Amino acid sequence: MKLDLFLKNGLLVFPGEGALPGGLGIRDGKIVLTAALGEEFDAARSIDCQGQWIMPGIIDPHVHFGFGDPENDFRTESRSAALGGVTSVISFYRTKDFREGFDAERTRAESQSVIDFSYHLGLTNDLHVKTLAECYERFGVSSYKMYMMYKGQAGLAKGFTDIDDGLLFAAMRETAALPGAILGVHCENVEVIPYLRDPLRAEGRDDLVAWDEQSPDFLEAENVHRVCYFARKTGCAVNIVHLSSKEALDEVRRHRYAGGPPMYVETCPHYLFTDKHDPAGVLAKANPPLRSQDDIDALWEGILDGTVTTVGTDHVPRKRATKEKSVWSASNGLPGVATFLPILMEAGYHQRQVPPEVLAMVASRTAARTYNMHGKGTLTPGADADIVVVDPDLERVVDPANLLSYSDYSPFEGRSLRGWPTMTFSRGRLLAENGKLTDAAIDGTGHYLPRLPKHQR
């Protein structure tokens, strides 16, 4: 059998299992074999990886494409993702009625994206919940999100009138009835935040520490408790997205039990890397806020013991001009899809000696399993040839001009990170090499991923 591509002399990283020197054979966009070090195979192209890591492509299960330049974000942000070793993303889609808008949204993304993609549906009204089963079948979307920070007055300011605990409970019941479905929840108690925020503003506070103090860890933990408690009563699989604190993480530990519904935890690279004293200031404003060094350490412990199951960037590609304001009026969120892997490498591998197979697990394999992304997140023969080759010692300074995002800043700009991808392959196509896109990274080469369990595909 002649291969299309043979990657040799690398360190094969098997998520959750270990790493071994060897090679990888690819044909027709699929992984067809793993090879021992020194084995040779006939291939149209052979690449000597010179001891670099050969990992499953990174999966970012939490991006907000469409929050920067809605008509073109899948073009710019998918290219930025490919530069960072990300080969699949799941973006959030919100509209009044998914049945009327989803097809057009998917078609636009298919014409632009250079990597594979899917969607979570953002549930904001009763109609969304009532039509969840129909959307599950029609669009192959098995993951949803509730925004508990948009309850009450906070929701009315955004035009949301239906978000409350009743909608959360109803969404859990509907999700629990769909095989393989999962409900993600943004956990912050928005009803207490104004009580804490108003005195801070009156004092003239305008910094990231104040942003943390107006939405402290216990307000996140309180909402996590509520979500996990309702999950136990409904049997709904839940995912606590962008979890930021030790106290909230401990709530998940407290509620998990053998035989109970799955309770997943996602954190973000910024919560694993920097704290509320970050010198980037308002550029690093996010929801939930950056926390303390103790919280960073606790999240890494959660990755090592399996309590934290996935990492997603919560990527929002807005312009610098939307951030360079008071912390109270600056836009929320930050871009991060291109620096996802380098931050995990720097903060995890270099600073904490986290093994490669653990990083590959939380950055790829578990997301594929959690979200029914068939053929992703593994080096097993038969899987899609989504591969990232990483030089663990390659050091670069973060420069937003080189990241190709619509966003023109990075909260990490000017910082030196060790561990950058040197090659990114999507279904066997080389999309990026040594920090540059290739000719293969053209519009519409990515695939939409329906994500129903195998028996319903």
Structure description:
The structure is a single chain. The chain is of the alpha/beta class. The chain folds into two domains: 3-54 and 383-436, Roll (Urease, subunit C, domain 1), CATH 2.30.40; 58-370, Metal-dependent hydrolases (TIM Barrel, Alpha-Beta Barrel), CATH 3.20.20. It has 14 helices and 17 strands. Strands 1, 2, 3, 4, 5, 14, 15, 16 and 17 form a nine-stranded mixed β-sheet that branches. Helix 10 links the parallel strand 11 and strand 12. Helix 1 (73-83) packs across helix 2 (98-112), helix 6 (165-176) packs across helix 9 and helix 7 packs antiparallel against helix 8. The radius of gyration is 21 Å and the shape is globular. It starts with a strand and ends in a 20-residue tail after the last strand. 53% of the residues are buried. The mean pLDDT is 96.
CATH topology of the largest domain: TIM Barrel
Instruction: List the uncertain runs.
Output: none
Query: How helical, in percent, are the residues?
Result: 25-40%
Mean pLDDT: 96
Content-based structural category: alpha/beta
Q: Between the first and last Cα atoms, what is the distance in angstroms?
A: 30 Å
Domain count: the total is 2
Specify the CATH class of the largest domain.
Alpha Beta
* Multimer state: single chain
How many strands in all?
Answer: 17
What is the CATH superfamily label of the largest domain? Answer: Metal-dependent hydrolases
**Biggest sheet descriptor:** 9 strands, mixed
Pfam family, one: Amidohydro_1
GO cellular component, one term: cytosol
Cofactor: Zn(2+)
InterPro entries: Amidohydro-rel, Metal-dep_hydrolase_composite, Metal_Hydrolase, Metallo-dep_Hydrolases_sf
